[in-house]
Design a protein that fits this description.
single chain; alpha+beta; Immunoglobulin-like; Glutaredoxin; 3 domains; seven-stranded mixed β-sheet; four-stranded mixed β-sheet; 11 helices; elongated
């Protein structure tokens, strides 16, 4: 680029600014000739139009918009039928479908967030088709699956979409329900930590706290509070089932760590944990490390090289366990004292040694 002539450089700059500084949505809608497809954004739940296109015989459409400065959810509407899609930055999203069943007969692609949101809506639509709209909010399997997706990226726009999703007038995750409120709290906490300037952060915090204060155990913060030990049974790297309560009953201080072995910083994190373990193990410290990894085979290879207890959380169990401990971000670490009580959460790795030493 340094060697381009000034005129040529200017042309490239103009072309780049026109194409690279906008996100795009396009595709084709079968049977849409003569219909208007409307692109809409939302403000505090109120949808308003950004652009519209009159579909021709081909049904093709293309629209572009300037990024809002933060990830957001938009929708395309034909009449009373809508398709929702996420935009993180300046990506291109593709929607194809049919005008006659626009909100159910469609595909969405173009980004990881788009794929995830499409998966969310497919799961919801499958339950609605099989059992009706009223069944969605009480379908435990669906909610576990959605919670697992949500906890994979609690500060992401798809997590925000999930906890605000309604089927008819009924929210899937109801803030008046204590279990559902924990999920909302995990997302609120993640937004506070990672997206403090996002305009939705204040809304999420307010939503969580307003309902939290109505419960008997009201709190003034969305940070996790001390809770009784929540037991679970998982298999170790040798395939042997282990329960947390049994491990915690041996009179030792247990460091309970939830992590992702496949994460980029995991090796360094475990090296620092190893230093703590090696210096305090003889004084009565054990570590129980729970892996939230997709590839169990790779986890086994890594786990066999570690001196502490390693457990694997399969997909169907991890959401329940993580929600029970109000884990919104990984790694997450808790301390269980010699009596088997959960006494402290430590988010800063540099503070773990001192925290553990208080209970030895």
């Amino acid at each position: 680029m340094k060697h381009l002539l000034p005129a040529a450089a200017a042309v490239i700059l103009i072309a780049t600014s026109c194409s690279d500084n906008h996100w795009k949505v396009g595709g084709a809608i079968a049977g849409g000739e003569g219909k208007t497809i409307v692109l809409e954004a939302s403000h505090n739940g109120n949808w308003y139009p950004l652009d519209s296109v009159l579909l021709d015989a081909s049904g093709k459409f293309d629209m572009a918009q300037t990024p809002s400065g933060y990830p957001d959810i938009y929708r395309l509407r034909i009449g009373g039928q809508s398709v929702y899609f996420p935009i993180d930055s300046i990506e291109s999203v593709t929607v194809t479908g049919s005008a006659g069943a626009f909100d159910t007969d469609y595909t969405l692609s173009g980004s990881a967030s788009a794929d995830a949101l499409f998966d969310v809506d497919k799961k919801i639509s499958a339950v609605v088709k099989e059992r009706g709209e009223r069944a969605v909010a009480t379908d435990s399997l669906l909610k576990r699956e959605l919670a697992g997706m949500l906890l994979g990226d609690p500060s992401g726009v798809v997590a925000y979409y999930i906890i605000n999703k309604k089927v008819g007038a009924t929210p899937i995750f109801n803030p008046a329900d204590k279990k559902d409120l924990k999920i909302i709290g995990a997302v609120a906490n993640a937004f506070v930590q990672h997206r403090p300037e996002d305009p939705r952060t204040a809304y999420l915090s307010s939503l969580f706290l307003s309902y939290r204060k109505r419960s008997v155990q009201a709190v003034d913060t969305i940070a996790v509070v001390e809770t009784p030990l929540i037991d679970f049974m998982l298999k170790d790297e040798n395939g042997s089932p282990r329960t947390l309560s049994e491990i915690a009953s041996h009179g030792k201080v247990v460091l309970l760590n939830f992590t992702v072995y496949d994460a980029e910083r995991s090796p360094e994190y475990n090296r620092q944990l190893a230093a703590i373990y090696n210096s305090l193990h003889d004084a009565g410290l054990d570590i129980v490390q729970v892996a939230i990894d997709d590839n169990q085979f790779d986890w086994v290879k890594s786990a066999r090289n570690l001196p502490w207890i390693t457990l694997y959380a399969p997909e169907l169990k991890r959401a329940e366990i993580l929600l029970g401990y109000n884990v919104g971000n990984l790694p997450a670490t808790f301390i269980i004292d010699r009596k088997g009580d959960l006494v402290e959460r430590v988010d800063d790795l540099s503070e773990i040694r001192a925290a553990v030493s208080r209970y030895l």
